[in-house]
Known about the structure:
Blueprint: E1 3-6, E2 21-26, E3 35-40, E4 44-49, E5 55-59
Antiparallel strand pairs: 1-2, 3-4, 4-5
Amino acid sequence: MVYGLGSNIRGQLGFGHNTPIHTPQRVPELCHKSIHQFLSGSDFVLAVNTDNNVIFGFGCNDEGQLGRHVDMDVNVFGWGSNGWGQKVTIS
């Protein structure tokens, strides 16, 4: 199970709204998805599942940080402003 709580000001907790969550609540979208890793920015979250490395993204996408509509069949790309060095290079 995956639980979320916090300010949720940009919808980054994955509940489909931006209302603050003051006590831990299950994130329905991620239930039974075998999430094994989270990548968190200041106003977005990416969750990676174990079965097939599907990436779920929630929150602010005004600089493309959720990677929506990106073709990633062969390569892995970083996107967004990188204002705080959040892009990572893997060699």
